[in-house]
Write a structure and sequence with these properties.
The complex is a heterodimer of chains A (415) and B (412). Chain A has 415 residues and is mainly α. Chain A has one domain: Amino acid/polyamine transporter I (Up-down Bundle). In chain A, helix 14 packs antiparallel against helix 15. Chain B is built from 20 helices and 21 strands. Chain B folds into three domains: 161 residues, PRC-barrel domain (SH3 type barrels, Roll); 105 residues, MgtE N-terminal domain-like (MgtE N-terminal fold, Alpha Horseshoe), CATH 1.25.60.10; 109 residues, CBS-domain (Roll). Chain B is an alpha+beta fold. Chain B is elongated and about 95 Å long. The two termini of chain B are 59 Å apart. The chains are: A mainly alpha (415), B alpha+beta (412). Chains A and B meet through helix 5 of A and strand 11, helix 3, helix 8 and helix 10 of B.
C-alpha cells in the first residue's frame, strides 16, 4: 500500500508539473520537426545521432532561460527586447521572426496536407479546410478547451517510439552513434551542414522561446512557483528529444537501410516507405501523429507570432479586442495563415524539402534571438539574483558561436 | 516655440560657445521634485565624462545643440534616483494612456522648446505612440533629415498629451521621488482600471494597488479576473490587502478570500475591522456556490410597523451599494422577514403611509440554496433582489440581480 501511495503521489506531482514547458515541448515536435528528423535519419542513417545530446543540453538551457525570464519579469520576450534594446532593433528582429515563422506555418500546413494524403484526401481540400478551422478556432476562443485534446493526442508521439522499436534497428550501432563525437569531414559537406542546422533549428526553434515565455507569463507563474516550473521545462525538453531520437532511428533503420534516402517530395512518401518495413498500424499511427502535431502547432504558431510582434512594436493585441481595435494583430494573424496555407496549393511543391528549409531558417535566426536572451538574462537590474549561472552562459554562448560557424560553413560549401 | 522629438535630440552633437563639438546628447533628465514637465538638464557625453547641460545654458536645440557657455562650465553628472531619464524610463516603455484608457508603448517623446531671453525652456508636452515616432526612429540616420521631416508630416500623429500619461514604476521609493501616484488612473472607472491592470506585468500591478486609494483599489479589484485577483492580493502586504478587502463588497471579498490559501486568507481576515470580518466569514462558511455565498449582508430592513418616512430615513443612513436599495425589507417580531417594498412604491407614496400596506408577497430562499436555483427564482419572479433567510426565517442577506449576472457569466 505504501508503495502504491507513493506512486500515486508521484503521478499527481507529475500531472501538476505538466504546464507551459511540457506543452511547448510537445509543440516542438511539430511537422517541421518530424520531417527534419525523418529526413535526417533517411539521408544520413545513424550518423547524425551524435547531435541529440548537445542539442538537448542547449535546449534545456535555452528553454530554462526563457521561462525564468518570464517568471521573474512577468513580461514577454519581445516586450523585454523592446524595452532594453529600443525600437529599431526590435523592428528588424520582429521582421526576421515573421519571415521564419511564416516558413514554420507553411511547414505545419505541409504536415497537415501530407498526413491526410496518406488517407487519400487531396491537399487542395485539406489545406483550406484546416486553415479555416485553425483560424476560427483560435479567434473564437475554442482553442483553450481544445488544447487539452491536442495535448492528450500528443500521446501519439509514443507511436514513434513504437515505430522505432518495430523497425528492428541495430541498437548497438545507434547507441554508439549517439555518443561518438562527429568526424570533421562533415564540415565540408553542404548537405550535412544543412541537416545539422535544420536539426538544431527545429529543436531549439526561435518562436518557441517567445511562446514559452509568454505562456509562463500568462499562467501567472512567479519567482516563487518557479522551482516546480523548472522541472516542467526540463522534463519537456527530455521528452522532446527522446521522441526525436526514436524518429531518427526508425527512419535510419528502415528508409536509409533500404535506400530511400530522399523523402523530399512528400511526407506521405516517408510513411508509405515505412509501411512495408514497419507494418500497417505503425504507419497509420505515424500519419495520425503527424496530423495532430501539425494542427496543434498550426493553432499556436501564427497567434503566438502575432502576439510577439504586436507586443514588441506596441500595436494593440489580444483576442479580447475587436478586429477594428487591433487591426495589425488580426491582419498579421490572418495573413500568416492565409499565405502559409496558400503556398501549399502550389502544384508539385516538395513538401518535406520546404519544411526542412524552414527549419534551417530557424537555425540561422536562432543565434540572433539567443544573443538577446543572453544579454537579458545576464542583466542584473532586470533579473536580480536570478541572472544566468556561468555554466549556462558558457553553454548558450557556445550554441551561438557554433550556429554562426555552421551557417557560415554552409554558405561557403554551397558550391 | 518649436517641437523637437526626443529621438532627434538623442545622439545630437553639442557645440559650446566656441562652436566646437564637445560631445553628444546621451540622456534628457527631468527632476519631478522641482518641476513636473520641465527638462532639468541634458546629459552630454564628452571625452571627459558625462556632463550636465541645463536649458538655461542652451541657445538652440535640434539636430545640433548649441550651448551659450564654455564646455568647462558644464558640471559633472552624478546619477540620482530622483531623476526621470526620458530615454531610460520613458522611451520604449509602457505607460498608461488615461485618455484612451489603455496601456501603450512609447515610440517617441515630444518636447517643446521656448526661447526665453537668450536661452531655452524645454518642456515635455506629449508622448508619441503612433507610426510617426516609429518611422522617425527607424529611419534616423538613414534618410536625410529634410526628406524625413517631409515624410513624417504625412503620417497622422498619434500623441498623448503629457497630462494624460501615467508612468509605471515598480520601486516604491523611486515612485515617491518621481511623484508617481497613478492619479490619472485612479480617476478612471473601476472597470477600466481593471482592464488596464490586467495588461500589466505582476510587479506593475502590485505597484498600482500599493499606491491608489483603497476604495478605488477595492472597486477595481472586484472587476479583475479571479486568478489575477489572487496573485495581486498575494503580492501585497497583509495590512494593505486587508485595507482593500474591507472596502470590497462582502460577497466579492468572500469570493476572493475563498480563492486564497486558508493560511493567507486567515492572515488577511485577522487584519480586518471586526464588522467586515464578521460579514465575510459568514459568507465564507456556506461556500461560494450557494445563496449565502452569493449574498451581501448590506441591505435595508425596517420594522413592519414603520411608515414611508422611516424607510426614507433608513435609506439615508444606508452605506451599502446602490443595487441593494432596490427593495426595502420588512421584519416582524424576532427580526423575521414578513414583507418587501420596492423602492419605486416608496418614492411614489406620501410620507405617512404604512409600509405594510405597500408590501408585496416576498420571495425568499434558504442560505444553502444552490446558485442555479437562485438564478431560476430571479428568472421566474423577475426579481431585482432576493431575500436570503436563515433557519428561523430571519433575514440573513440579499442577492442582487447584478450578482446573478456575474454568477451566470462565470458558471463553468
Amino acid at each position: 500500500m505504501k508503495f502504491l501511495k507513493s506512486w500515486k503521489a508521484r503521478i499527481v506531482l507529475l500531472l501538476a508539473v505538466i504546464g507551459p514547458g511540457f506543452i511547448t515541448a510537445n509543440v516542438d515536435n511539430d511537422a517541421g520537426g518530424i520531417f527534419t528528423y525523418s529526413q535526417a535519419g533517411a539521408q544520413f542513417g545513424y550518423s547524425l545521432l551524435w547531435t541529440m545530446i548537445p542539442i538537448t543540453i542547449a535546449l534545456v538551457v535555452v528553454q530554462e532561460m526563457a521561462s525564468r525570464m518570464g517568471a521573474i519579469t512577468g513580461k514577454g520576450l519581445s516586450d523585454l527586447i523592446r524595452e532594453e534594446f529600443g525600437f529599431r532593433v526590435t523592428f528588424w528582429l520582429m521582421l526576421a521572426l515573421v519571415v521564419t515563422n511564416f516558413g514554420n506555418v507553411v511547414a505545419e500546413f505541409a504536415g497537415v496536407a501530407s498526413s491526410l494524403e496518406l488517407f487519400g484526401i487531396s491537399k487542395y481540400i485539406v489545406v483550406p479546410v484546416a486553415a479555416a478551422v485553425v483560424w476560427a478556432m483560435v479567434v473564437r476562443g475554442t482553442y483553450d478547451s481544445i488544447e487539452k485534446v491536442f495535448l492528450a493526442a500528443s500521446g501519439f508521439y509514443v507511436c514513434y517510439i513504437v515505430a522505432g522499436l518495430l523497425a528492428h534497428p541495430d541498437w548497438k550501432a545507434a547507441a554508439l552513434a549517439t555518443f561518438r563525437p562527429p568526424s570533421a569531414v562533415g564540415i565540408r559537406n553542404y548537405g550535412y551542414l544543412f541537416m545539422v542546422i535544420a536539426l538544431v533549428g527545429t529543436t531549439i526553434a526561435p518562436w518557441m522561446q517567445f511562446y514559452l515565455q509568454a505562456s509562463i507569463v500568462e499562467k501567472g507563474i512567479t519567482a516563487r512557483q518557479y522551482a516546480a516550473s523548472r522541472w516542467d521545462v526540463i522534463l519537456g525538453c527530455l521528452f522532446t528529444d527522446i521522441v526525436a531520437w526514436f524518429i531518427i532511428v526508425a527512419c535510419a533503420a528502415t528508409l536509409y537501410a533500404s535506400g530511400h534516402k530522399d523523402i523530399g517530395t512528400s511526407g506521405a512518401d516517408a510513411a508509405l516507405a515505412l509501411r512495408p518495413l514497419v507494418g500497417e498500424y505503425a504507419y497509420l499511427l505515424f500519419a495520425a501523429g503527424l496530423f495532430n502535431a501539425s494542427l496543434f502547432a498550426a493553432s499556436i504558431l501564427p497567434i503566438s507570432t502575432a502576439y510577439a510582434v504586436c507586443e514588441g512594436l506596441g500595436f494593440e493585441s489580444g483576442l479580447d479586442k475587436k478586429f477594428h481595435e487591433a487591426p495589425v494583430f488580426y491582419w498579421l494573424y490572418t495573413l500568416l495563415i492565409v499565405f502559409g496555407a496558400g503556398v501549399l496549393l502550389v502544384p508539385r511543391l516538395p513538401l518535406v524539402y520546404v519544411a526542412v528549409l524552414s527549419q534551417v531558417a530557424n537555425g540561422i535566426v536562432l543565434p540572433l534571438v539567443l544573443i538577446f536572451m543572453l544579454m537579458l538574462t545576464n542583466d542584473r537590474e532586470l533579473m536580480g539574483e536570478h541572472v544566468n549561472s556561468r555554466t549556462f552562459n558558457v553553454i548558450a554562448w557556445t550554441t551561438v558561436v557554433v550556429m554562426i560557424v555552421l551557417t557560415i560553413a554552409m554558405v561557403l560549401t554551397q558550391r | 516655440m518649436s517641437v523637437v522629438a526626443l529621438s532627434e535630440l538623442l545622439g545630437a552633437s553639442v557645440r559650446d560657445a566656441s562652436g566646437a563639438v564637445r560631445g553628444r546628447v546621451r540622456e534628457i533628465a527631468i527632476a519631478p521634485q522641482d518641476h513636473p514637465t520641465r527638462i532639468a538638464f541634458l546629459i552630454v557625453k564628452t571625452p571627459s565624462g558625462e556632463r550636465m547641460l541645463p536649458p538655461d545654458a542652451i541657445t538652440s536645440a535640434g539636430a545640433t545643440v548649441r550651448a551659450g557657455n564654455d564646455a568647462s562650465q558644464w558640471e559633472a553628472f552624478s546619477p540620482s534616483d530622483g531623476l526621470l531619464l526620458l530615454k531610460r524610463d520613458l522611451l520604449d516603455q509602457q505607460i498608461i494612456d488615461i485618455h484612451g484608457r489603455k496601456v501603450v508603448r512609447v515610440n517617441d517623446v515630444e518636447l517643446e522648446s521656448t526661447p526665453v531671453n537668450s536661452h531655452l525652456l524645454i518642456n515635455v508636452v506629449a508622448v508619441d505612440v503612433g507610426a510617426r515616432g516609429a518611422v522617425r526612429r527607424l529611419s534616423k540616420g538613414m534618410v536625410p533629415s529634410f526628406t524625413l521631416r517631409a515624410l513624417l508630416e504625412r503620417i497622422p500623429p498619434r500623441v498623448i498629451p503629457w497630462q494624460f500619461v501615467d508612468l509605471l514604476e515598480t520601486d516604491p521609493a523611486r515612485r515617491v521621488k518621481l511623484k508617481i501616484a497613478y492619479t490619472g488612473l485612479a480617476q478612471l472607472h473601476p472597470a477600466d482600471i481593471a482592464d488596464i491592470v490586467e495588461d500589466l506585468a505582476p510587479a506593475e500591478r502590485e505597484s498600482v494597488f500599493e499606491t491608489i486609494d483603497e476604495e478605488v483599489a477595492a472597486e477595481a479589484l472586484e472587476e479583475i479576473d479571479p486568478d489575477i485577483q489572487v496573485s495581486i492580493v498575494k503580492s501585497l502586504d497583509k495590512d494593505r490587502a486587508a485595507d482593500i478587502v474591507e472596502e470590497m463588497d462582502p460577497d466579492a471579498a468572500a469570493d476572493l478570500l475563498g480563492d486564497l490559501e486558508e493560511k493567507h486568507s486567515d492572515e488577511i481576515l485577522k487584519e480586518m475591522e471586526p464588522q467586515e470580518r464578521h460579514e465575510v466569514t459568514q459568507l465564507l462558511e456556506f461556500g461560494e456556490r450557494t445563496a449565502a455565498g452569493r449574498m451581501t449582508t448590506e441591505f435595508v430592513a425596517v420594522a413592519e410597523t414603520a411608515v414611508v418616512d422611516d424607510a426614507i430615513e433608513a435609506l439615508r443612513a444606508f452605506e451599502g451599494s446602490a443595487e441593494a436599495v432596490a427593495t426595502i425589507y420588512l421584519t416582524g417580531p424576532g427580526l423575521k422577514l414578513v414583507g418587501s417594498v420596492p423602492l419605486v412604491k416608496i418614492a411614489l407614496s406620501s410620507p405617512a403611509v404604512q409600509l405594510s400596506q405597500l408590501s408585496e408577497p416576498h420571495i425568499s430562499c434558504a442560505r444553502d440554496t444552490p446558485q442555479a436555483e437562485v438564478a431560476a427564482l430571479f428568472d421566474k419572479y423577475n426579481l431585482i433582489t432576493l431575500a436570503v433567510v436563515d433557519e428561523h426565517g430571519r433575514l440573513a442577506g440579499i442577492i442582487t440581480a447584478d450578482d446573478v449576472i456575474t454568477m451566470l457569466r462565470h458558471r463553468d
